[in-house]
UniProtKB/TrEMBL annotation:
This is inorganic diphosphatase. It catalyses: diphosphate + H2O = 2 phosphate + H(+). It is an enzyme of class 3 (hydrolase). Residues 182-310 form the DHHA2 domain.
Length: 313
């Protein structure tokens, strides 16, 4: 029997590093034979960070690789729509996350969910509770993951725990210039030139299940917001429509976040989406775009507003 530890589909840096961090935690707390894996291809930011520190990312796992005797532990997600497709829910033995819970299990499992800015901050807290030292290589990755998920500690999801974790992990990793590292991560994250329109939309997306309605919200963090909203706008609108049909969702939108200007604009293609985001955020959609200001977190800023708009129809 094996215990696989992995994050969500379309994994971001926080998800991939969390698999490594929580595997280390599992080995000392629960199961010494835990194995970190990924369930989808790495994005360019994650590849950059692992290459920067000359480290090997987890291996790719397919659902058919999981036997009936194996167990799985989910990190950085919990909702069914973000899990490995085809995964048997009864094999889920634990969850470590920092997102809103949407769970329904027939038997008790171990669940650790805290309202912090990154799953790796949760891992750092658990290591602290056990007084377990974090090795330099893992600290380097965890530091980058927290900086990425909190947008350099500027996201509204950022907590005091995130700030303290960054300082302590930077010390362990012997990284003195946190600002320079953050800028490196931003540059790797925001390089969209090699991404197709479909990849821009699906590079980092979540399907929200709200009162029986499915809302696909993609997000791209970049320093090229205007390029996406001018030169590539028509292509993105077309892709939004096709993905909506392919995925069978009720609503779809793309949040284009400028990580330097601290601004997000929503791009939508349908009348239903226009009505939804205007109700959720106020303002008026102009040429398929709604500027929602400094709302940068899908988890804390965007999803709750969408949920409120759909719940109070």
């Amino acid at each position: 029997m094996k215990t696989y530890v992995f994050g969500h589909i379309k994994p971001d840096l926080d998800s991939v590093v969390a698999a490594l961090a929580f595997t280390e935690y599992m080995k000392i707390h629960w199961d010494p034979n835990s194995i970190p894996v990924i369930i989808d291809e790495l994005n360019q930011e994650t590849k950059f960070v692992f290459e920067k520190f000359d480290l090997t990312p987890p291996q790719l796992l397919k659902v058919e690789d999981i036997t009936t005797e194996d167990r799985v532990v989910l990190v950085d997600h919990n909702e069914a729509g973000q899990r490995l497709p085809g995964l048997n829910q009864n094999q889920i033995a634990g969850i470590f996350d920092h997102h809103k819970a949407n769970l329904n299990f027939s038997s008790p499992i171990e669940i650790n969910i805290l309202p912090v800015g990154s799953s790796n901050t949760l891992a750092w807290i658990l290591f602290k509770n056990l007084q377990h030292p974090i090795e330099k290589q893992l600290a380097s990755l965890m530091l980058c993951a927290i900086l990425s998920d909190t947008v350099g500690l500027k996201s509204s999801t950022t907590t005091k725990s995130d700030e303290v974790a960054v300082l302590e992990l930077a010390s362990i990793a012997s990284i003195q210039d946190i600002s320079a590292l953050t800028l490196e991560i931003f540059k790797a994250k925001s390089n969209i030139s090699a991404l197709s329109d479909e990849q821009v939309v699906l590079n980092d997306y979540k399907v929200l299940d709200i009162t029986g309605k499915k809302v696909l919200c993609g997000q791209i963090e970049t320093v090229e917001q205007e390029t996406l909203l001018t030169d590539r706008k028509q292509g993105l609108l077309s892709v939004l429509q096709s993905i909506k049909l392919q995925q069978g969702v009720d609503f779809i939108m793309l949040a284009i976040t400028d990580i330097l200007k601290i601004n997000t604009k929503l791009l939508v293609s349908g009348v239903g989406e226009i009505e939804l985001i205007q109700k959720a955020f106020g303002g008026t959609v102009v040429e398929n775009i709604l500027d929602i200001g400094p709302k940068m977190s899908r988890k804390k800023d965007i999803a709750p507003a969408i949920e409120k708009a759909l719940t109070h129809t």
